[in-house]
Design brief:
By secondary structure, the chain is mainly alpha-helical. The chain has helices spanning about 1-40, 45-70, 80-110, 115-155, 180-215, 220-250, 260-270, 270-285, 285-295. It holds the Pfam family TAS2R.
Length: about 300
Amino acid sequence: NVSSYKATFMVITSLQAFAGMGINAFVVSVLCIGLVKKKTFNSNEKILLFLGCSRFWFLCITWVYYFLAIIYPQCFNVRPIPQLFAAFQNFFNSSNLWVSACLCIFYCIKIVNFRYIFFIYLKAKIDRIVPWLLLGSVLLSLVISILAYNFTDETHYNNSTKFGNFWKLDLRTDQRYFPLVFISGFEFATAFLTVILSALPLLFSLWRHKCKMQTNSEKTLSMDVNIKVIKSVLAFLIIYTINFTCLVLTLIYATKNESLLLFLILVFQYAFPALHSLILIFSNPKLEKTLLKTL
C-alpha cells in the first residue's frame, strides 16, 4: 500500500531529519562559539564546520521535500520547484560525501607515520591543502547539482509511486540518461574508494601502535585514546559502506516500481548524516565534553 508507505516514511524521515539537524546544528554551534573565542580555526574544525553545515541543510531540504510531496504534491507541477529541490538536495548530499572523504584523508595524513618523502611533504602541507580539498568538494557538488537540475527539467514526476530526491524520479530507460547515472555512480565510487584508501592505512597504523604499547607494557591514557580512535574509524567505515551501498541501490532501483524496497533503502541512507556526526562528537573530546555538559 503506497499510502501507508508514505505515511510511515514521513514519520521516520521526520524523526531522522530533526535528530540529524539537531546533532549537526550542535556541532556547528560549538565550532562557531570556539571561533568567536579563539578568533581562528584549525584544519580539522574547518572540515567539521563545512560537514555540519552541508548535512544540516541536506536534511532540512530533504524533509521539506518529503513533507510537500505527501501533503501538497501539486506544487511540484510548478516550474522550477522540483528542479530547485533536485539541485539543492544533490549539492548538499554530494558535499556530504566528499567532505566526509576529505576528513578521512586529513586524519590519515595527520596520524599515519609513513617515511615516504611525498607523505612527509603532505603532512607538512596538509593545513594549506585542506581549503583546496573543500573547494574541490564544492565544485564537484556544483557539477552534480547542475546535472540534477537539467535532468529533472526533462523528466516527469509520478508521485503516486515514487517519493525521494531526484534519483527517485520516474525515469525512462532512455540512453540519454545513462551519462548522468554513470557520472553519479562514478562519483559515489570515487568517494568510497578514497575513504577506503585513507581508512585502512589509518587503522593499520593505529593497531600497530596499540600492539607496540601493549608489548612495552605502556597501559597509558594514550593507549585508551588510541583504542577509541580505532573504534571511531571502524564505525565510520562501516556506516560509510552501508551508505555507499544504499546510494548504489538507489541508482539501480530508480527505474523500478518497488516502493517497499526503495523505502527501506532511503531509511538507511538518511540515517547516515546523524550517525556519523554522533561518531565525530564522541571521538572529539571538546565536542563530547560540551555535549555532556549541555545534557
